[in-house]
Amino acid sequence: MIEIRDLHTYRGLNYVLQGIDLDIPDGQCTVLLGRNGMGKTTLVQTIMGLLRPRGGTVRIDGTDIAGRPPFAIARRGVALVPQGRRLFPSLTVEENLTLGVSRRSRGSRPAGGAGWTSERVYELFPNLGQRRHHRGNQLSGGEQQMLAIGRALLTGPRLLLMDEPSEGLAPVIVERVGQVIADLREQGLAIFLVEQNYGLAIRSADSVSILANGSVVWRGTPGDLDADPAARESHLGV
Amino acid sequence: MTEFIVQTINGFTLAGVIFLVSSGFTLIFGVMRVTSLMHGAVFLLGGYVAYSVIGALHNFFWGLAAGTVAMGALGLLVERGLLPLLRHSEFAELLATLGLVFVIDDVSLAIWGGNPLNITLPGVLNDSTTLPFHGIVYPNERFFILGVSVVVAVALYALLRRTRVGAIIRAGVDDREMVSALGINVRVVFSAVFVLGTALAGFAGVLGVPVVGLAPGNDVTILLLALAVVVIGGLGSYEGALLGSVIIALADVYGTAYFPAVSYSVLFIPLVVVLLVRPQGLLGRRSMA
Ligand SMILES: Nc1ncnc2c1ncn2[C@@H]1O[C@H](COP(=O)(O)OP(=O)(O)O)[C@@H](O)[C@H]1O
Ligand SMILES: [Mg+2]
Hints:
The structure holds two protein chains of two kinds. Chain A is of the alpha/beta class.
């Protein structure tokens, strides 16, 4: 689905991504690990078009979209569950959820992510349904995360970018996030999961990459990583 | 007491006019982070355009429509033609919109001269009504201005609260990057808000003539009032603009009526108090990501 080649991104004067090569295949869960400040969020934001790369390519189904505006990338089937969730505090739960659903995109989206409605999200997360007229910022952390996921799903994506969805959540909620990720993958959605929670990452992953100092320093299967304590120790400290 | 009631009604009428200007001003800032310093000049130019159209067609409502549409068109021109050249530089945008103030002022002076002009409202609107209390006689045109402001305020509220476009605008004030990441072309929404905001300023410039007059210098006064309103209410907040307009307008009329020597200071007391106690504005959010 996505091929990233020799991607370079700056944040201000910080040279953060120093030549990233990474594939995110259709229908799989691709996990990115790495310590704080290594550039995981920078990579996610570059894929989504929120940051402009200095060089390199991001191909979606063969078309280079590097440097395109976020809405154009979203319309190609990429959706973002951002770090910190970034819900719209001025909007109700229902408005947050349906903002990305335009008349144009209704029904005309490619299969895979098709068929998501607010009702379906409320079935998946009943708590949200009970609070549909509350403001987005009146929810618990777990509910906010579910809302951020639902909001992304309603744009009808084929690829979901999830940036630390377990951050700040209680273990039982993290468990729930893990289930949701597994279900979505089961339904054919491609997932790019950035995580600090090693357990969640390993359970969800089809393949794992580790980012350190601006480039991918390790890649393999979750099994490989479990069997490689040296790599875990030096790149993750777990 | 009679005096106080009259001043209070005056205050709310002025609040209506100020709200029409500052609601657009605050929305433009909210979604685009552009402080449009030309907003006062647009107000004045809208009035002048209407003055000429009314002179030619002898119809107030054509003048009102012309002033509104012409200023909306000017907004479109600035937003599409000028601002893109300056993207990413707030300072350049400030200077450019300030430069436009001088251009509009000079052109207006050349065309309409330096003397105060007036626009009279038609028919019964030009009469007065005797109120059923204290025998107060009050001009109908001011009731009309107040009524129209309320209608526009309600319509704007419905647009913001009840429509998808309104939800996009509110979300854009919160976090415009995220709006774009949901597949929405925020640039188009920005343009629409800019045009709506300048059209509202033009509309207010015509409607407000019986209250604030039509003369050079009004542009600066109105810009200062709009700035004070959004600082008090909170930048980017519709409700803040509403509340701020009422506070500033009442401070202005009471100050002018009861403390004429220091009326400008009275006007800025609420401003200073809000800045000290709640710098993000009464209804503003602490930080806007
Ligand atoms: N807005 C910013 N301006 C400048 N540097 C930034 C900004 N945001 C993050 N950085 C820097 O970029 C680097 C990568 O950050 P980030 O991508 O958020 O890392 P991660 O998500 O892996 O924790 C960090 O060193 C951070 O200090
Ligand atoms: Mg991060």
